[in-house]
């Protein structure tokens, strides 16, 4: 996975890089702590060195909605620097974390001093728009089974392990929050996938045994929607 802090600073002039590196500070966050809160006016940019976090929103009745997972090499907080608006979501530590924190002034100095750094950031934001577009489609057009298959396929493709193992894996409740359903529905569908030898569940691990089979299931679901669109 690309190291966002290194990639950003690689695009700026050495003199600018050295000054900014001297001011970046390290921060440790314990599991379960909120790093930034929804609507907060803080404007630091965070680069994850170790650990994982989740961007989440909460409904009025307390339901948690997962927006995205954030892991080593990722950054978050840049939107509030770019548009000068409050935080758009809360970011909660899923594990103990180590972060590098950059001031908004230094982050903007990187972008403003180098067109290559600006283009790098544009490409990252573009990739995030594409990912969110996929999720909007899935939530709007696919049933629970297909949505779960799509989420699992994303997890498999971003797995750092060559054995296609996610450890620690999200709980069924966490998966439900990601795809807009309830835990019981996820448990039922995960049991079916295990019986088909597509996945294997551990205590907090998830191994993908038949990735082509999962890809075919996703392709079939999306293909069926394309056929329906064509008949409309």
Could you explain the architecture of this structure?
The chain has helices at 4-10, 14-23, 78-83, 104-113, 115-141, 144-157, 172-179, 183-195, 211-231; strands at residues 25-29, 34-36, 45-50, 53-58, 64-70, 75-76, 90-93, 97-102, 165-166, 199-201, 206-208. It is an alpha+beta fold and 232 residues long. The protein has a 4-stranded antiparallel sheet with strand order 1-8-3-6. Strands 2-7-4-5 form a 4-stranded antiparallel sheet. It has a 3-stranded antiparallel sheet with strand order 9-11-10. Strand 10 and strand 11 (206-208) form a beta hairpin. The longest helix has 27 residues, at 115-141. The radius of gyration is 19 Å and the shape is elongated. 26% of the residues are buried.
Number of helices: 9
Rounded average pLDDT: 91
Tell me about the biggest sheet?
4 strands, antiparallel
Physical arrangement of strands within the biggest beta sheet: 1-8-3-6
Backbone structural class: alpha+beta
Model regions low in confidence, pLDDT < 50 over at least 5 residues: 226-232
Q: Tally the beta strands.
A: 11
Give the % helix: 40-55%
Radius of gyration, whole Å:
19 Å
Shape: elongated
What pattern of helices and strands is seen along the backbone? Answer: HHEEEEEEHEEHHHEHHEEH
Strand content: 15-25%
Termini gap: 41 Å
């Amino acid at each position: 996975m690309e190291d966002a802090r290194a990639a950003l600073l690689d695009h700026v002039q050495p003199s600018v890089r050295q000054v900014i590196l001297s001011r970046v500070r390290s921060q440790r966050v314990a599991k379960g702590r909120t790093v930034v809160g929804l609507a907060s006016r803080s404007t630091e940019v965070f680069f994850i060195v170790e650990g994982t976090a989740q961007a989440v929103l909460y409904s009025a009745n307390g339901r948690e909605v997962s927006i995205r997972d954030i892991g080593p090499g990722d950054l978050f907080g840049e939107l509030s620097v770019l548009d000068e608006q409050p935080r758009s979501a809360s970011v909660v530590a899923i594990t103990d974390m180590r972060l590098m924190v950059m001031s908004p002034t230094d982050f903007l100095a990187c972008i403003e001093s180098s067109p290559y750094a600006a283009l790098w950031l544009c490409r990252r934001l573009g990739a995030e728009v594409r990912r969110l577009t996929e999720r909007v489609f899935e939530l709007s057009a696919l049933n629970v089974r297909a949505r779960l298959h799509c989420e699992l396929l994303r997890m498999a493709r971003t797995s750092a392990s060559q054995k296609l193992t996610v450890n620690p894996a999200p709980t069924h409740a966490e998966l439900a929050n990601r795809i807009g359903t309830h835990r019981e529905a996820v448990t039922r569908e995960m049991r079916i996938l295990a019986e088909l030898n597509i996945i294997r569940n551990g205590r907090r691990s998830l191994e993908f045994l038949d990735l082509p089979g999962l890809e075919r299931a996703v392709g079939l679901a999306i293909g069926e929607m394309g056929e329906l669109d064509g008949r409309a």
